[in-house]
Design a protein that fits this description.
By secondary structure, the chain is of the alpha/beta class. Helix content is 45%, strand content 14%. A hairpin with a 3-residue loop joins strand 5 (206-211) and strand 6 (215-220).
Length: 263
């Protein structure tokens, strides 16, 4: 793929690069390409926070070790910010501004003048207020610059034998709440626990959307099987604090809460 070769040359031209690393598909491939090209002049920075699923921190550490790239960790608590908790449609914009500011402070202290993230060309087709913030903050998006889509990233990751190439996309837990519905620590923990339980049941792609009145809308890749084990699901989610448990009859899809952005 000539665009990947162009991307490698662009990475090499940076001399030194800090990759914002979540352990997801996109940032993992970018970290591997950067490390393959720059060696120890490429490092990764991951942000652990209360709105990142607990399982993702361990995944990020494991993938960084597999790639060989040095991984650093910053800890943030976005729920301390009232604007974030209020959950307006531009929540991701303000969250990204805080994260970018923290990343740039760290980068400046450690001699990095370029920070890159794994946003792909496919992300341009969705509502992404965080992308606007990242552009303002001069974060480099190599996959966007070279027109590389999510499907191409997945295919190349598989070709390179990168662990996790077949993992579903993971998003901040705040994305499980409709805009205007407050994101609180209790509700975030409830969602995280519910999704962990569903993954333990063997569902690969999982979302538990949290609506007012403690309503859970369960979205999985196999709704037929979910119906078969509905009593176990409903019982566990009620234990976690949900009053009502329902099943989304549509196919699994990331970003569904963006439908409420203009509501």
């Amino acid at each position: 793929m000539s665009r990947i070769d162009d991307l490698r040359r662009a990475v090499a031209a940076q001399g030194k690069l800090l990759v914002l690393f979540s352990g997801g598909l996109d940032s993992s491939l970018l970290a591997k390409l950067a490390f393959d090209v720059l060696g120890t002049n490429a490092e990764a920075l991951t942000i652990e926070s209360t709105v990142v699923p607990r399982s993702e921190a361990a995944v990020a550490r494991s993938l960084a070790a597999e790639i060989g790239i040095r991984l650093h960790t910053l800890r943030l608590n976005e729920l301390e910010q009232q604007h974030f908790r209020a959950n307006p449609p531009d929540r991701c914009y303000h969250c990204r501004k805080v994260r970018d500011a923290a990343a740039w402070r760290w980068a400046g202290e450690h001699g990095f003048s370029t920070i890159a993230d794994g946003l792909s060309y496919s992300d341009l087709s969705d509502y992404r207020p965080g992308l606007k913030a990242a552009d303002e903050d001069h974060i480099w998006h190599p996959f966007i610059e070279f027109g590389i889509t999510k499907n191409e990233i997945r295919a190349l990751s598989r070709e390179l034998g990168l662990k996790g190439w077949d993992r579903p996309s993971m998003a901040c837990l705040a994305s499980r709440f409709p805009h205007g519905f407050e994101v609180t620590p209790t509700r975030v923990e409830r969602v995280d626990g519910a999704e962990e339980f569903l993954r333990a049941l063997g569902f690969a792609r999982v979302r538990v959307r949290h609506f007012p009145h403690n309503l859970a809308v369960v979205e999985v890749d196999d709704p037929t099987r979910a119906i078969q084990v509905r009593d176990r699901i409903a019982s566990r989610l009620r234990e976690l604090g949900f009053s009502f448990v329902s099943l989304d009859l549509e196919d699994f899809a990331s970003g569904k809460m963006n439908r409420t952005a203009g509501a």
